[in-house]
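Narrative of activities, Objective 1.

The group set out to show that a structural description can be obtained from nothing but a protein's sequence at a throughput compatible with the screening campaign. Below is one input-output pair from the validation batch, recorded exactly as produced.
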Amino acid sequence: MPEIYSSIACNLDAHILQASLPLFEQEKVEAIEWSFDTLFKVSEIPAWFTDLVSEFSDHKRLIGHGVYFSLFSGKWSPGQQEWLDKLQKLASQFHFDHITEHFGFMTGEDFHKGAPISIPFTAQTLALGKDRLQRIQDACKCPVGLENLAFSYSLDEVKKHGDFLAQLVESVNGFIILDLHNIYCQVHNFNIDFDDIIKLYPLERVREMHISGGSWDETQVGPGRQVRRDTHDESVPEAVFEFFHNSIPKCPNLKYVVMEQMGTALDTLEKQAVFQSDFLRMDSIIKGLRFDFDPKIENTFTPLNTSASNIPLEDHELYKQQLELSHILETAGSISEAQAMLRSSSLNNTAWEVDKWAPYMLQTAISIAQKWKNGFA
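Output recorded for this entry:
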């Protein structure tokens, strides 16, 4: 089993850096995860931040996490090619031990300015995802992985997600980020036990875990119905620490555990102290657990000797459906209106299975999409 590094999602944000500084000074932070594409439109990155990234890069403790690539967009966009070109340039400047992206596509006609939403799990979307993963790997020349979803429309979708992820990443000998707060969201939102959901994932392909908090959304569906969202704006729930403790022995190739929190949620010394306490608890769990695994299971996720075709794969019918879904989510005034729009749309009677979508999750999707459209994360 590889050594497990206690890590922080460390970006160019004053509050994150202020909260993390005591941990850096204590030499508790063993690696950093950098959401590199959040700085693609920043004209000048401060030298001190480049020095920080370089320090972890030089010690092979830097990992990259993409946000805006929109892996499953049905139509290949100039923005996606620009994203790959910038990643390729960064990968020549810094040593990334691996690169990861989010699962799904971004809503809105400009998919780089929307909310991340799931897709139907079909042979067509699987082929599209494999094409995109290969292009990411061609650009960065290192192991690549995907993060499991926090948001799903139905229990059926939750149950299929792990196997679909496995098929995707196997095509490039890739890996999975097991985000345990995302699992917590699924456990609560669909009333499924942790032990039942975790066995649906290819745990031998987990190279990284995320630990974070989130928030509750009240819905109009059912009295007092709450939906758990992965908003990264609160401390880590006790249940997530329990999931973490129970998951480590099941993941023989785990190498990085990353504490995530939004900088906007770390704007006071009290909140920063809680963040530090959560990180130290995470670190103590890692240091306190040691297991012997069968060395035959070990996988360094070295890229395969393959490359993407010259022409990116596209699915114009999927693209049309994504635009239509984006419009519905961004304009519907109620759940009933959204349901009526979906029934009369090109998504009806297709692999999207819109008739199975839980109403409270549809309402949440509407809320997320409309907040993003109006400029809020």
